[in-house]
Amino acid sequence: MAGLKFNVAWIFSLLALFFLRAHCFYLPGVAPEDFQKGDILLVKVNKLTSTKTQLPYSYYFLPFCQPEHIVDSAENLGEVLRGDRIENSPYVFKMREPQMCNIVCRKILDKKAAKAFKEKIDDEYRVNMILDNLPLVVPIRFPNQENAVVYQYGYHVGLRGQYAGSKEEKHFINNHLTFTVKYHKDPLSDSARIVGFEVKPFSVKHEYEGEWNEKTRLTTCDPHAKRAVTSSESPQEVEQNKEIIFTYDVEFQESDIKWASRWDTYLLMADDQIHWFSIVNSLIIVIFLSGVQFCGMIIVTMIFALLGFLSPSNRGGLITAMLLLWVFMGLFAGYSSARLYKLFKGTKWKKVALKTAFMFPATVFSIFFVLNALIWGQKSSGAVPFGTMFALVLLWFGISVPLVYVGSYFGFKKPTIKDPVKTNKIPRQIPEQAWYMNPAFSILIGGILPFGAVFIELFFILTSIWLHQFYYIFGFLFIVFVIIIVTCAEITVVLCYFQLCSEDYQWWWRSYLTSGSSALYLFLYAAFYFFTKLEITKPVSGGFILWLYVDSIVRILRPHWYNRFLCLLLVHKAHLLVCED
């Protein structure tokens, strides 16, 4: 009776959890900073990015205005691998003190500078800046949708266009920036916190009277007006020996958004109905298969992402976390490979550990090294420096490889997994199989359902990676991840069962490739997206298709261990039942 009361109490406690109010949060990656009126705000510049080339460059790769001394900010491993180059800039604001028509510098373009600007304008490069750990964004409003705003990283270096009555295409640079700094004021004090950083770029051919000097006043720019252009309607053309004057305005706008919620506007999910459609579509696939409830594996990276540790404000955190987790998971890779090797009556566990530690990482590192050399030749900030490359090799040889050997040692010390029945030394002849049990056909069919479960979410992931948009919908991603785990497991077990019913005992490699073939569809889909949605102009950028190949290898390896384990469990249980009968 006491046990019954205890169980009832537990049930009521669990039910009560559904009615508790939950508070969601994310860890912003930086402590809040309070600013008083007049405090100095230092704007930092980051890499130049393009959806056409996918090759980032340092901000000062182009002859923009520079501060007296360029200072590099400390970056973590993930930021370096992303190609971030965070540096100081000549843009300096004073908190809650608007500034209009501030002159940054005056440049006379030589042939090399004009060519560099034109190339980056042709490739649609965007300038990225940072203020108080917030990225500079350009708000894009849709006229047909009320309050529908999408934020894009950075502003375009310039644009191409034609003068009225002319068919010749010219290059124009965005040399005037109108910044908007949003802040949330503390009602109990005069301090404020920055909650938004926006910009509107303009191309303005500035004019002035007399000779140029430090005190020159622009006739096209009124320091007391809210808009820079007062008389000139001509954009600033990019040509050799052309004069360019860089200017900016900064406005401060009070906001009701609190500092803890300042990323919410950037991470607004405008397409949540599509994500729910993807999940419902995937659930139907799972229910169609068998309807069996399956507890999905939770990857540590996904847990940290759900908890908010890997928010976009923590730049490079996701890549760093994934890299370090891969290194430390070498212990489990070595353990599982040794256990499986011992099942096949193997004795040379050190040889297996060596292959586990080097085969896949060496393939990835070779591709990474070749691409990095090509990117280095383009003088892109996306090229990994020698110091970071050495750190990666040190992580591989100094941590991952020893952990693989430690895992293999303990895995091989474990007792051998015993087969339920004795295996004949002479393989028995396999009967002729039906056409639909052909290995190639069944493997290709097995990959369709897992691909159907994930392809919608894959579109948003590719868009965020290659079109420089925010992606912070790990809740949807986690649900899709669990569904694809269930789908891969079910389709593998079902096809393995059909194969055994057809008296075909060669199920090992087929269980490996059945759900792994979804990687082929994902590779083709990603390649289709790469060549149709992106206007790639640099041949080197086409090398990123190699990363799609690496991603496909990862997707084949990822479902390997648990799918094969489930098939092994199915075979063991089936033979045990046969023995009992």
TrEMBL record:
Gene Ontology BP terms: protein localization to membrane
Cleavable signal peptide: 1-24
Gene Ontology cellular component list: endosome membrane; Golgi membrane
Membrane-spanning ranges: 283-310, 317-338, 358-377, 389-412, 440-463, 470-500, 512-531
Subcellular location: Endosome membrane; Golgi apparatus membrane
InterPro entries attached to this UniProt entry: EMP70
Keyword annotations: Endosome, Golgi apparatus, Membrane, Signal, Transmembrane, Transmembrane helix
Keyword Cell membrane on entry: no
Keyword flag Repeat: no
Membrane topology term: Multi-pass membrane protein
Pfam family, one: EMP70
Family: Belongs to the nonaspanin (TM9SF) (TC 9.A.2) family.
Name of the protein in question: Transmembrane 9 superfamily member
Species this chain originates from: Hibiscus syriacus (Rose of Sharon)
